[in-house]
């Protein structure tokens, strides 16, 4: 039986049918191969099969294809989201940068994975966003002590524009 891995579905059907086999589409599965490319058959290519045997052809849905992660550091959170979505990333989460070191409110300080890393578009991308902290060094509510609570007061999801 011919090995048709790497072919398009239509090309694989043509090759297999010309060799005397019937074919059926086995559907698409997550794979690092480009969408629509044959990733396997049942029975497998190179095995022996009688003419007239029905060969199931499996293709890639392309979801595990890696693309370089765009550099969004310095962008505001909404612009970074748009940039990542335009590149095909769909699983984007946000976290506060615990030490934004003077970065502008709501600006991206880092990503995980880092910019330029080849990453499947379905993998999670964490975007670290600079927030604002309050250092309440006054007397607090009780009026008698130091309250050094540094707490984030802006939610990354609330960063807009």
TrEMBL record:
Pfam families: PASTA (PF03793)
Residues covered by the PASTA domain: 1-61, 63-131
InterPro entries from the UniProt entry: PASTA_dom
PROSITE patterns, A to Z: PASTA (PS51178)
Annotated spans, Disordered: 25-52
Protein name: PASTA domain-containing protein
Species this protein is from: Naasia aerilata
